[in-house]
């Protein structure tokens, strides 16, 4: 609950105002709704998302009426919980595998978000599911990133296809894919170059790589610390290159939760996995209901 500490506290203020009430009414939910709105905004959830959320919760709260044995504050907790789950996409969004080998997963994202780390984490995650994997090092602008991927690949016991920095990422992708077919691996994961900001060169390069790989999954890696900006990024990448989902990293940091809560609603694309630490084991599916439970403390 560390990460959402502030949000959890803000929401608790809302329920506490309903102590001693018999039923939820239009009048007595005004203050709690204001608290919920404030708590979400402070957690860096984007404003349109907050508006829709608050509207949906208050509509239901007023229409709930008297439920035997359930106190109004508990009713509101339940309504908020269910709306949070819905907001985050409802069900867990599983990774999709291709009908014929190999499944190709293309990773994109800005520099420093944890893309290289995620590449290796994802390989380990899939290995544990019984899939053989291969990594392709496509960050040709940072030789250190290639070295890092080779080291991490070694660490998790997954081969890395690296071809240096002198050839274009799309060509590396083509060669890597060919090698993966020869090795008959189940899943190929390609790490790509990030930039500090979105620019046309990066998007063009990603489009070229995507054309060559014809990936089953195109996952945008986003840093949870960027708050509601994460949702805007997912939207932009989706419009530009077409993505299938996002991976949210650094959930172990002191992010306020806005990214986890806004991405699906703003971009229409689900968060599929989350990273919660620097260790290779720290990657897991994104479970909206567990996340909602964690937020509500
Ligand atoms: P890239 O530039 O996107 O490839 O980013 P890197 O994979 O090199 O990661 C940048 C930094 O973030 C490294 O120091 C990683 O150890 C760290 N990092 C990546 N994912 C996580 C995470 O989930 N939690 C934490 N705390 N640190 C992470």
UniProtKB/TrEMBL annotation:
One of the GO biological process terms: SRP-dependent cotranslational protein targeting to membrane
Q: Name one GO molecular function term.
A: 7S RNA binding
Q: Which chemical reaction does it catalyze?
A: GTP + H2O = GDP + phosphate + H(+)
EC number(s) given by UniProt:
3.6.5.4
Which residue range or ranges hold the SRP54-type proteins GTP-binding domain?
270-283
What are the entry keywords?
Answer: GTP-binding, Hydrolase, Nucleotide-binding, Ribonucleoprotein, RNA-binding, Signal recognition particle
Q: What is this protein called?
A: signal-recognition-particle GTPase
């Amino acid at each position: 609950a560390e990460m959402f500490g502030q949000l959890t506290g803000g929401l608790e203020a809302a329920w506490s105002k309903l102590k001693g009430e018999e039923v939820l009414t239009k009048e007595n939910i005004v203050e709690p709704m204001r608290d919920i709105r404030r708590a979400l905004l402070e957690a860096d959830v984007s404003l349109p998302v907050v508006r829709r959320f608050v509207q949906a919760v208050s509509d239901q709260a007023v229409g709930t009426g008297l439920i035997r044995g359930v106190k109004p504050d508990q009713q509101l907790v339940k309504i908020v919980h269910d709306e949070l789950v819905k907001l985050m996409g409802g069900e867990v969004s599983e990774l999709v595998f291709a009908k014929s080998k190999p499944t190709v997963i293309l990773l994109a994202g800005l520099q420093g978000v944890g893309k290289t780390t995620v590449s290796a984490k994802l390989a380990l995650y899939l290995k544990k599911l019984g899939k053989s994997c291969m990594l392709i090092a496509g960050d040709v602008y940072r030789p250190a990133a290639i070295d890092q991927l080779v080291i991490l690949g070694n660490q998790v016991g997954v081969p890395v296809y690296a071809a240096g920095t002198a050839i274009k990422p799309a060509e590396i992708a083509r060669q890597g894919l060919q090698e993966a077919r020869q090795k008959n691996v189940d899943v190929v994961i390609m790490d790509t170059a990030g930039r500090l900001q979105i620019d046309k060169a990066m998007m063009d390069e990603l489009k070229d790589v995507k054309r060559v790989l014809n990936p089953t999954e195109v996952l945008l890696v986003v840093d949870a610390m960027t708050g509601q900006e994460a949702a805007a990024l997912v939207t932009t990448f989706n419009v530009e290159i077409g993505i299938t989902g996002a991976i949210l990293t650094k959930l172990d940091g002191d992010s306020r939760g806005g990214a986890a809560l806004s991405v699906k609603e703003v971009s229409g694309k689900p968060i599929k996995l989350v990273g919660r630490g620097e260790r290779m084991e720290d990657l897991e599916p994104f479970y909206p209901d567990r996340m909602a439970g964690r937020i509500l403390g």
